[in-house]
Amino acid sequence: MKARVQWVGEAMFLGESGSGHAVLMDGPPELGGRNLGVRPMEMLLLGLGGCASFDVVSILKKSRQQVISCEAQLEAERAEVVPKVFSQIRLHFVVKGRGLAPAQVARAVQLSAEKYCSAGVMLERAGVLLSHSHEVIEAE
């Protein structure tokens, strides 16, 4: 896997993935940015949410669950001093579908957390406290 990050100016950077996608990162005005893109630490949090969501949906589909939507709501706390690393992250999944088995959803979240989500496992090994929760909503 490869990526490239290029400084655009001020506190703005353009990240390009090896798969050919680009994302703009920018800092807040008080640090010289123009607030035109996500912050790098926000990107890390979004990456975790994407990684875990991919796992949950994939596992549920393989279990023949009728998933209509899956939303990962993430909340992170950071250290007070530099480096302001993540100290704790809470992931809450809202899974909507038809006839979803709550036990299957719980198992999908657990498997993602313990085995499949590379981003989450890496962050936990670095000392970040991760917690996972979920809710199931029956579609109309």
UniProtKB/TrEMBL annotation:
<protein>
    <submittedName>
        <fullName>Peroxiredoxin</fullName>
    </submittedName>
</protein>
<dbReference type="InterPro" id="IPR015946">
    <property type="entry name" value="KH_dom-like_a/b"/>
</dbReference>
<dbReference type="Pfam" id="PF02566">
    <property type="entry name" value="OsmC"/>
</dbReference>
<dbReference type="InterPro" id="IPR036102">
    <property type="entry name" value="OsmC/Ohrsf"/>
</dbReference>
<dbReference type="InterPro" id="IPR003718">
    <property type="entry name" value="OsmC/Ohr_fam"/>
</dbReference>
